[in-house]
Amino acid sequence: MVAEPITKEKNDTRVKRKEKTKTNKKKKPKRIRIRLIPIWFRIVLVLVFMALAAVTGAMIGYGVIGDGEPKNVFKASTWRHIVDLVQKETDE
After folding, report:
1. How far is Cα 83 from Cα 77, in angstroms, rounded to an integer?
2. Count of domains forming the chain
3. Of 50, 63, 65, 90, whose CB count within 10 A is highest?
4. How far is CA 3 from the centre of its chain?
């Protein structure tokens, strides 16, 4: 089988068909998304929740698991003692 050469008339009808199919499709309106919570506020919330989780975890770890007073987590002397214990173990 030999393919027929494409004439200008055939090419024009192909282009018209493509244009018709494009115009027949219904265009959906572009949906505009409005954020209820801005991105910068989300980042701040994540940082606050991370800090809160760290403080809560330290209180539970020291007070419940470590049999200490949970309020003592906020004292500098407690942290100095913990650092001294860690450095003592690494020196040996």
Report:
1. 10
2. 1
3. 63
4. 55
Q: What is the DSSP letter of 1?
A: -
Q: Is the dihedral of CA 52, 86, 69, 65 positive or negative?
A: positive
Q: What does the DSSP assignment read for 15-74? A: HHHHHHHHHHSPPPPPPPP--SS-HHHHHHHHHHHHHHHHHHHHHHIIIIIS-S-GGGGG
Instruction: For residue 7, tell me if it sits in a domain.
Output: no
Write down the residue that tokens 């040996």 correspond to: 92
Phi, psi angles (nearest 5°) of residue 58: -65, -40
Other C-beta atoms lying within 10 Å of the C-beta of residue 55: 12
Q: What is the pLDDT of residues 35-80, one digit of tens each?
A: 898 999 999 999 999 999 999 999 999 898 988 899 999 999 999 9
Range of the domain at 81: 37-92
Overall pTM surpassing 0.70 (yes/no): no
Q: Is 15 domain-assigned? A: no
Residues belonging to the chain:
92
